[in-house]
């Protein structure tokens, strides 16, 4: 999360705080939610069943989920699935991060350019 950089349209440093984070139930821990809350970042993360039952047992309010925002998450998931068609990305053969990043760039170019 600390390495996020969002480029600006004009001049200036990139933003390090996104407006919203959308994730699946795997990222629904208290630690992640507290970190996002402390930085003032809105989040759309569904809660796991055990978290919902614990909140109900303690009498706390449930987290509201913006379903229209969460539905747009499938675009990113489909992109990852298309990228994983490249064997080198799916199995992560590259040892160095910059080589892996270069492979991701090449795979994105292959998706973007017409065949």
From TrEMBL:
InterPro entries (alphabetical): Tnp_DDE_dom
Stretches assigned to the Transposase DDE domain: 21-113
Name recorded for this polypeptide: Transposase DDE domain-containing protein
Organism: Streptomyces cheonanensis
């Amino acid at each position: 999360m600390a390495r996020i950089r969002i480029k600006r349209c004009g001049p200036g440093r990139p933003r390090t705080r996104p407006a919203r984070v959308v994730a699946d139930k795997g990222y629904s821990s208290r630690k992640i939610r507290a970190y996002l809350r402390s930085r003032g970042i809105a989040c759309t993360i569904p809660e796991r069943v055990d978290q919902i039952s614990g909140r109900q047992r303690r009498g706390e309010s449930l987290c509201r989920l913006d379903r229209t925002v969460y539905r747009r998450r499938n675009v990113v998931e489909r992109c990852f699935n298309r990228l994983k068609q490249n064997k080198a990305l799916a199995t992560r053969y590259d040892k160095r991060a910059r080589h892996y990043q270069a492979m991701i760039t090449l795979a994105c170019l292959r998706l973007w350019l017409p065949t």
